[in-house]
Amino acid sequence: MARMNVLLTEDVPELGLAGDIYTVAGGYARNYLIPRGYAILATKGALKQAEEIKQAGIRRRAQMRASAEAQAQVIAGRQLLFDANAGENDRLYGSVTAADITERLEEAVGFEIDRRKLLLGQSIRDLGIYDLTLRLMPEVDAVFQVAVVREEEAWADAEARAQAKAEAEAQEEAEQAAGELAVEAAEATETEEAEVADEAPVDAE
Predict the structure, then answer these.
(1) CA 20 to 30 Å from 85, out of 44, 47, 107, 203?
(2) Alpha-carbon distance values, 13 to 122, 124, 137, 194, 205 (Å)
(3) DSSP, residue by residue, 5-60
(4) Rounded CA gap, 78 and 137, in Å?
(5) What's the chain's Rg over C-alpha atoms?
(6) Do the Cβ atoms of 6 and 15 come closer than 8 Å?
(7) Residue 4: strand pairing partners
(8) pLDDT above 90 covers what percent of the chain?
(9) Alpha-carbon torsion 182, 186, 192, 196, what sign?
(10) Is 68 exposed, middle or buried, given 0-12, 13-18 or 19+ CB atoms closer than 10 A?
């Protein structure tokens, strides 16, 4: 299919910024970019508007960034507490999802949040404290915390559980390291004894 030159009138992710000219597949231009108002054909008349469109895009991005930075300041450092049913191994009977978190965050900050901007990866399925990042726009992140606790527990209980878990893991690592050192020492001793035996004189018969 023939390719076409288009002038972007809006920023298009993974393509370019408003005011820039790109050569794209004809179907992409006719079926997506132009009908949605993201681009126009790069005719001589349209090219005269390129600089004006570019400057408007710069102003719009600056406004969006200022808004994102203001929202990031409101979100940063927030602590959200979720209570849940969990087994003895701290595994949840269910999960805390991105939708759950963004809904609670919206209640806390008072403005709408796009849950697709939450860098969660997968739903939370264990008790604990989690540092989460909301990417409001490129280079504008807000970091906040979520604690998942048993019913009727508080944030302090989550901190105590996290500390106990960290201490247990540190103890386990220390014991593992001590075990590895003991094995290395035993192997070194065996090697030394073997070398001494090899160097010992042999009595002539």
Answers:
(1) 107
(2) 24, 29, 12, 68, 90
(3) EEEESS-BTTTB-TT-EEEEEHHHIIIIITTTTSEEE--HHHHTTHHHHHHHHHHH
(4) 19
(5) 31
(6) no
(7) 24
(8) 71
(9) positive
(10) buried
Average pLDDT over residues 6-28: 94
What sign results for the dihedral spanned by CA atoms 155, 160, 165, 169? positive
Tens of pLDDT along 152-175? 999 999 999 888 888 878 887 887
Which letter, b or e, does each residue of 106-140 get, where b requires 16 or more Cβ atoms within 10 Å of its Cβ?
eeeeeeebebebbebeeebbebbbbebebbbeeeb
**Residues 90 and 127: beta-carbon distance below 8 Å:** yes
Name all contacts of 157-161 with Cβ < 8 Å and 24+ positions apart. 158/81, 158/127, 158/128, 158/129, 159/129, 161/90, 161/127, 161/128
Report whether 57 contacts 19 (CB < 8 A): yes
| Cα–Cα distance for residue pair 141/119, rounded to 1 Å | 10
| C-beta neighbour count of 156 within 10 angstroms | 10
Contact between residue 136 and residue 149 where contact means Cβ atoms under 8 Å apart: no
Tens digits of per-residue pLDDT, 34-65? 999 999 999 999 989 999 999 999 999 999 99
